[in-house]
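Re: the multi-chain job from yesterday

Posting the exact lines I submitted so nobody has to dig through the queue logs.
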Amino acid sequence: MDIPHSNHYLALSGGVGGAKLVLGLSGVLAPDQMTVVANTGDDFEHLGLNICPDIDTVLYTLADWNNKELGWGQAEESWNFLAALKRLGGENWFSLGDRDMATHILRTQLLGAGASLSEVIEQLSAKMNIAHRIVPMTDERVRTQVHCRDQRTLSFQHYFVRDRCQPEVTGFEFSGIDKARPSAGFSAALASPLSAVIICPSNPFVSVAPILEIPGVVAQLQAARVPVVVISNIVGGEAIKGPAAKMMSELGMPQTALGVAQHYVEQYGDLVKGFVLDTADSALEKEVNALGLATIVTKSVMLTLYDKIELAKQTLAFASTLEA
Amino acid sequence: MDIPHSNHYLALSGGVGGAKLVLGLSGVLAPDQMTVVANTGDDFEHLGLNICPDIDTVLYTLADWNNKELGWGQAEESWNFLAALKRLGGENWFSLGDRDMATHILRTQLLGAGASLSEVIEQLSAKMNIAHRIVPMTDERVRTQVHCRDQRTLSFQHYFVRDRCQPEVTGFEFSGIDKARPSAGFSAALASPLSAVIICPSNPFVSVAPILEIPGVVAQLQAARVPVVVISNIVGGEAIKGPAAKMMSELGMPQTALGVAQHYVEQYGDLVKGFVLDTADSALEKEVNALGLATIVTKSVMLTLYDKIELAKQTLAFASTLEA
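And the result, structure tokens for all chains:
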């Protein structure tokens, strides 16, 4: 596959699943050929620290600092801070590793000194020797709230980590999004001639939606007539990681890749042009096509770096066949 | 030695040396018989954290959480936070252990939520199962500044840790002390019938002076006619730990226990009534007596818990012989 040097891609990513494909894309695309936009809706303030789970997962993954055993956090991590905090009666429901703490402390310090989140990520990226550009969806504060069947509204990390996704969800709200603007890096990418937008295999409700629902983003993508490709985050009726399948079931949607495709069409009309299905879901291809989406069927479960690069190649080749 | 139950003692302490005697005193005195006042002049803000070195040393020592190998910080400590911070380009001149971080994070969080430093220490003490009462000298912000021969003024931790006490000192200033009031626990002890005040073997310039120079403290002690005993922090012409001897030399004072006694007399008149000399300094006893101070000569270098308790007993027995 030959990708013209002038091509530029926008990759939208949540945490673990998205970061895997971003790593694959970074193996195929030159640093100046891709802007990675990370979700910040699940950022939160905890113990006085600014914590950005999706950004850090993307950073650690691209730096090869990520913990492959745990699937989150840093490699060669230790947990003495958390043990000591527990002993002192501090809040220990969110697992903060000793190495990971350095990222949060430094970010909190820089934000406190007036830096933007974009500037913080740029500095962290440089120190991690990450060549590709990672930007937050916005420098403004957007916080995902989870509405629950039991009438409670939980902040995302309370739902996701503290309560282990047990509450039944009825909907989501991205508090602050009305006043949020795309970050400078995101804006620049939106205003540039894009070859395609890759929506990584991330949770549509809490990872992708906050990015797309920043005012003006969908309209700008549609006006630019850029092909948008979604890689299904549901394979064989299950999410590879996280609560997406459980959420779909609770929201009354089919808990399948077809359900994901339907969700994108219902929410964003004809924005998405291409949909990548896993081989396990080949039987759903015609129904996805019937929604007006072009498809490819390929191995989308990324276990090795080879898998990640292969899916990136397949996705880019697919995108090049699409017209917006 | 029988200490009447109604006796109450005030112990003034800096970091390591002071904490050793406080531990000895805690082995002799019941929890309601002692108030420990810790210096906060060397507290500082670093990486967005509120750090209180002397308080933490006293807490860790009384909890038996202190690191005996290093002489500071927590036992069984690890350093992955600091290594990760260095890798990210953060300020790493002040060694913060992974376990120690929990104390700073929790304190910063509690202070940020409006708690006083006294309340924070109370909570930490409870979690550490410390029975004796430790209070900060003040809940107000006092910050020791070090004036240097090269005309610079350094914050204490910059002088002490970052610059490893290398600059030649010309004097000290306790910024904020004019508006500082003794903490509630310190005030209560000052207002109660005290049997004696024990000035632990801590640096007179940067550990003891900030406590005594809070407005009203010396006058209140003199009015109360309570015997004040100093344990010399200089033994055989050297400080057991820290820059006290170097400071005395730079300030043009005799670098001896006699110099320490002269300093207290010059600074605080007849406040101090008793002075504890190490056996290594027995030759200085008559000269100290000539300053108007009663003396005992005993082993004041505390290597074991036995040493600490023995020095505590000797000091209390000595204090009981003094009249204010």
